[in-house]
Specification:
Number of strands: 17
Pfam families: FecR
Structural class: mainly beta
Number of helices: 3
Number of domains: 2
InterPro entries: FecR (IPR006860)
Keywords: Membrane, Transmembrane, Transmembrane helix
Protein name: FecR protein domain-containing protein
Organism: Pararobbsia silviterrae
Distance between the termini: 24 Å
């Protein structure tokens, strides 16, 4: 099921999904040496540190190397209140402001808690109390703005402010609940999942 946010106010739409699946609209260094060898003498010349770094930068393809190293990071936690942790594979990771989030992370908030995440394309995700958010997939090309974003709110609430990806390619962005897939066309919206919500807990 795919729904479009096309209510009267396209900038602010609220989706609400209950345990029966009904959805409704609501209000708004390396080290390097050069060696010269003769039959009896061996010399080592140490390069300056800044030259080593420059050579390593070029060997790695310059900025493209940095982009590859950071490609797995979806974004960063910018705000945090109360009890928030990340389930990453078989591990539970404590969070703090500045912590990175990655694809396949599950972000869980406790009572009276919330967390704000800024993705690399400037998408803003704010997860409310008693919520479970799964970050399924994220890719973003900072030059072309191509990529994909797929997230599931299993339980609780998620407020979204669209970033560059959604604005350039809205069809590449998908938010889901246990019962619904949302095709978003607004720039700001809230998704709420009540009841059991299929949280898996």
């Amino acid at each position: 099921m795919r729904e479009r946010a096309t209510r009267s106010n396209p900038r602010y739409v609220r989706y609400r999904t209950d345990s029966r699946g009904a959805a409704a609209y609501g209000p708004k260094d390396s080290h390097c040496a050069t060696e010269h060898t003769t039959p009896t003498v061996r010399h080592s010349i140490a390069m300056p540190t800044h030259l080593i770094a420059h050579i390593a930068f070029l060997a790695c393809g310059g900025l493209s190397c940095i982009a590859v190293q950071a490609a797995d990071s979806m974004g960063t936690i910018k705000t945090l209140k109360g009890a928030v942790h990340i389930e990453r594979g078989a591990h539970t990771v404590d969070t703090q402001v500045g912590s990175e989030v990655f694809a396949n992370d599950r972000v869980v908030t406790g009572p009276d808690s919330s967390v704000g995440i800024t993705l690399r394309d400037d998408t803003l995700l704010t997860e409310g109390a008693n919520s479970v958010l799964e970050l399924n997939k994220f890719a973003f090309n900072t030059t072309t703005y191509d990529g994909a974003l797929d997230a599931t709110i299993r339980h609780g609430s998620l407020s979204v402010v669209d970033g560059k990806l959604a604005k350039a390619n809205p069809d590449a962005v998908r938010y889901s609940t246990p019962t619904t897939t949302l095709g978003v066309r607004g720039t700001e919206f809230i998704i709420e999942v009540g009841g059991d919500g299929g949280s898996g807990h």
